[in-house]
Amino acid sequence: MSRLTTLSTILGLTGLILAMLTALAGGATGVIALGFAMLVLGFTGAVIGAAIHLGRVWDTVR
Questions:
Q1: 4-40, pLDDT tens digit by residue?
Q2: How far apart, in whole angstroms, are the C-alpha atoms of residue 7 and residue 10?
Q3: Is residue 5 within 8 Å of 50, Cβ to Cβ?
Q4: DSSP single-letter state for residue 26
Q5: 62 Cβ partners below 8 Å, 6+ apart?
Q6: Which of 17, 18, 52, 57 is nearest to 44 (CA)?
Q7: pTM of this prediction?
Q8: 5 φψ region: left (φ > 0), alpha (ψ -120 to 50), beta (else)
Q9: Contact 5, 42 (CB under 8 A)
Q10: Which uninterrupted H or E stretch holds 54?
């Protein structure tokens, strides 16, 4: 995996854990929103990284 994909995956999973644990503990909504924002950024970065890798593989095949 590339650095972008790895960092995005870690960011997304950390955001998911942060949001879940904060919601279970009855924490502030701002922290839950931060967790979901991290989740969205991580997911977006992972999708972009996967698309970049797919483009490289597609060029290699041709």
A1: 788 888 989 999 999 999 999 998 999 999 999 999 9
A2: 5
A3: yes
A4: T
A5: none
A6: 52
A7: 0.77
A8: alpha
A9: no
A10: helix 29-61
User: Residue 41 in contact with residue 12, Cβ under 8 Å?
Assistant: yes
Please name the residue that has the structure tokens 């924002």.
37
- Are 36 and 62 a contacting pair, CB within 8 Å? no
Phi and psi for 2 in degrees, rounded to 5? -75, 170
| Residue 48, token pair as written in the block | 């972009």
User: What whole-number distance in Å separates Cα of residue 20 and Cα of residue 32?
Assistant: 8
Q: How open is the CA angle 33-37-26, to the nearest 5 degrees?
A: 25
What tokens were used for 24?
């279970």
The residues, ordered by sequence, that sit 6+ positions from 61 with a Cβ below 8 Å of its Cβ are none
